[in-house]
Amino acid sequence: DDELQTDGNRSGHFQNGLAPTDEEVFRNIAAQLAEIGDQFDKEINARVVNDLVQHFGDQNLSTEEVTLYMSSVVEELVQSIPLDLAQEKAMLVLAMVLSKRIMNTVPSLVCRVFNTTVNFMNQQLHDYIADMVSQTA
């Protein structure tokens, strides 16, 4: 409804060595992450999102530069928001929440935001995601 949602529906398959897993596992993980994301969303200042929008919209910046900036913002938020969960899980949820807010703010950035977020997650959180899936299966 005029908003990007992560509702647990799977449109593709995990790659990079992750074995196919039961769809219910993905739905359970998505539901847990969405609940945490709703809590984090309230804590994220609009200024942070606007700064990210500026970086994503700057075509002079490479994907690598935008990914590094996003990484630094996520790490900053992990330090500033009181968390009661593992740092990797917090980083994953924050990256997804930030991406959602950027895409809802400027829909024309969807491709760049999506690709950058996937790149960030592959670089920073791949092992954590693989472990989370294997533990839930």
TrEMBL record:
Superkingdom assignment: Eukaryota
Subcellular location per the Swiss-Prot or TrEMBL entry: Cytoplasm; Mitochondrion outer membrane
GO CC annotations, alphabetized: cytosol; mitochondrial outer membrane
Main location: cytoplasm
Organism: Oxylabes madagascariensis (white-throated Oxylabes)
Protein name per Swiss-Prot or TrEMBL: BH3-interacting domain death agonist
GO BP, one annotated term: positive regulation of intrinsic apoptotic signaling pathway
Keywords on record: Apoptosis, Cytoplasm, Membrane, Mitochondrion, Mitochondrion outer membrane
Gene3D superfamilies attached to this UniProt entry: Blc2-like
